[in-house]
Design brief:
Layout lengths: L6 H20 L10 H20 L3 H30 L6 H20 L1 H4 L3 E9 L2 E8 L1 H24 L5 H27 L6 H19 L5 H11 L4 E5 L5 E4 L1 H11 L12 H4 L3 H8 L4 E6 L7 E8 L10 E7 L1 H15 L9 H9 L8 E9 L2 H8 L1 H19 L4 E4 L4 E8 L2 H16 L2 E3 L5 E3 L2 E8 L6 H17 L5 E3 L12
Parallel strand pairs: 13-14
Antiparallel strand pairs: 1-2, 3-4, 3-7, 5-6, 6-7, 8-10, 8-13, 9-10, 11-12
Helix pairs in contact: 1-2, 1-8, 2-3, 2-8, 3-4, 3-6, 6-7, 7-8, 15-16
């Protein structure tokens, strides 16, 4: 094979290429997602150099020494492949250096045992010189202990590939091609670990070449791609055009970064007209919001809402985000303010539509029933339910029209609200039927309350126009109980029967119903 004759040359060229990319990457090592890539490239460069040294050495001892030298960068390259991917895909890697230090302990032990294997033979059962296609190198037969260390190391490469593959599910479309390139490159060294033995490729140093696609793909994905270089150059412009307010504080709680949106929002919340919040203490905001301040002081993340007092009905979401995930509390925080005002107004409108009768402003039947059912009768009191029915309401519609009927319903509802808004629950439970629930000392008190309302309505006249007016009267049915186990249905049934009696015995009167009977559901 003619190409094999220049094999050491290819190895050295691979080393130079890896070294060049490593040195070039070193300049950008402080950028997010790029802190460990330069180390991985230097490790690959060392693998190439050590492999070339092994092949070019003439003596067995020299070849073995270079073989041992290969092991440190070879094993650490898998660990730093994991580090590169972990930092690239994860939003929080504050504890990654500590994890890497812990994970490297078995690797250091492995390398030390390899270098001292000639004394204890724990790592290699056989060592010999093997020549394949004119290339001579050291061939070893690993022990079970050595294979355990190898398996441990390979797990990092597999995990890195899995991390990157899973991250593709949430990758924005603009970054998908770049991430696929990175994944394809990483797959080469990981898969080759399993394929080389199956393909019976035993040429010394071939493993080093499998790392080239990975580091080249990573280099172009993280440093050459123009899409990813936008972050450090346009961070301030992005922040200034964000609708959300962004505040960054330091370990002393001083504001070290803020955009215009945050300045306006802080004015809405605090009332402090401060155009230059930079350098101010965030306590100006926190002192009025103890729940947020408690999380902030502990440097714990959380989601909160702040409602601004006043006619504007402003509501802001507040997100606390730790800038570094570490055990110490002496770290800065990122505070993001989002305007929830429109969302809250929409939610209130939905709740209103679901619970309130749009014509009268009283609770609708379903919500009224829920509110009554949730009432707990206090000791010494009872629960009274009054059902009102406007007398001869159909005659009003037939005589004056439906608009007059609507006006009668609205005026009647206003009278109910005027009397019971602060001492009971009022609702519209039918076309011209209304209900009020309140606590009373006894049946006599409930009856007196109903009679007072009936009398008030008897004296009330609705003016439709200069010629027409309506005189309203109401029939009322009452049910009363002091027992907490009585359901709304039981209470309503007796009040409805009492109301029916009032309407059939002359109208414009009050009838007190019987004590509600608790009806058990028969299970078949």
């Amino acid at each position: 094979m003619p190409w094999i004759q220049g094999y050491p040359y290819y190895l050295l060229m691979g080393s130079v290429l890896s070294l060049y990319m490593g040195v070039s990457s070193y300049r950008h090592r402080k950028l997010a997602g790029r802190r460990y890539l330069w180390i991985l490239m230097l490790l690959v460069s060392l693998i190439f150099v050590a492999t070339a040294g092994e092949i070019m050495s003439l003596s067995f001892q020299s070849k073995l020494w270079w073989k041992n030298v290969q092991q440190a960068p070879l094993f650490f390259s898998a660990l730093f492949t994991y580090a590169v991917v972990k930092e690239y895909v994860s939003p929080s890697t504050g504890r990654l250096p500590v994890k890497l230090a812990i994970f490297s302990i078995p690797i250091v032990m492995d390398v030390l045992l390899i270098f001292t294997d000639s004394y204890h033979h724990l790592m290699r059962s056989e060592v010999a010189v093997l020549t394949v296609a004119g290339v001579s190198g050291i061939a070893v037969k690993p022990t079970l202990l050595s294979m355990a260390f190898i398996a441990y190391d390979q797990l990092f490469g597999l995990y890195a590939v899995c991390l990157l593959a899973v991250s593709l599910l949430n990758t924005p479309r603009v970054y998908l091609r770049t991430n696929l390139l990175l994944l394809a490159g990483l797959l080469v060294p990981v898969i080759s670990v399993f394929l080389l033995p199956l393909l019976k490729i035993t040429i010394t140093g071939f493993t080093a070449f499998t790392y080239l696609p990975a580091i080249i793909a990573a280099y172009f994905a993280l440093f050459v791609s123009s899409k990813l270089t936008i972050f450090p150059l346009t961070k301030n412009k992005i922040l200034e055009h964000m609708k959300d307010g962004v505040v960054l504080t330091d370990r002393y709680d001083n504001i070290i970064g803020i955009n215009d949106a945050a300045t306006a929002i802080l004015y809405d919340i605090t009332g402090i007209a401060n155009d230059n919040w930079m350098g101010k203490n965030i306590d100006l905001f926190m002192k009025s919001h103890e729940d947020i301040a408690a999380h902030y002081s502990q440097r714990t993340e959380g989601q909160f809402e702040v409602v601004c007092s006043g006619a504007g009905e402003l509501c802001y979401g507040v997100s606390l985000i730790a800038t570094e995930h570490a055990t110490t509390e002496n770290k800065g925080m990122l505070i993001v303010f989002s305007d929830h005002s429109e969302k809250k107004r929409y939610e209130r409108e939905l709740v209103y539509q679901a619970t309130v009768d749009d014509l009268t402003g009283l609770y609708n039947r379903r919500h009224f029933m829920q509110r009554v059912q949730n009432q707990t009768i206090p000791d010494g009191l009872g629960l009274a339910l009054l059902l009102f029915d406007i007398d001869d309401f159909k005659l009003i519609n037939d005589t004056y029209g439906h608009l007059a009927g609507d006006q009668a319903l609205v005026d009647f509802s206003n009278k109910i609200l005027q009397v019971y808004q602060n001492k009971g629950i009022a609702g519209r439970v039918g076309g011209e039927e209304f209900a009020v629930c309140f606590f009373a000392e006894d049946k006599c008190a409930a009856l007196k309350e109903a009679e007072n309302f009936r009398t008030m309505m008897s004296d009330y006249t609705i003016i439709l126009n200069e010629q027409d007016s309506i005189h309203l009267t109401a029939s009322i049915g009452i049910s009363f109980t002091e027992r907490r186990e009585v359901t709304f249905e039981d209470l309503y049934r007796e009040a409805d029967e009492a109301l029916y009696h009032s309407k059939n015995t002359g109208k414009n009167r009050v009838t007190l119903g019987r004590e509600p009977i608790i009806r058990e559901t028969v299970k078949g």
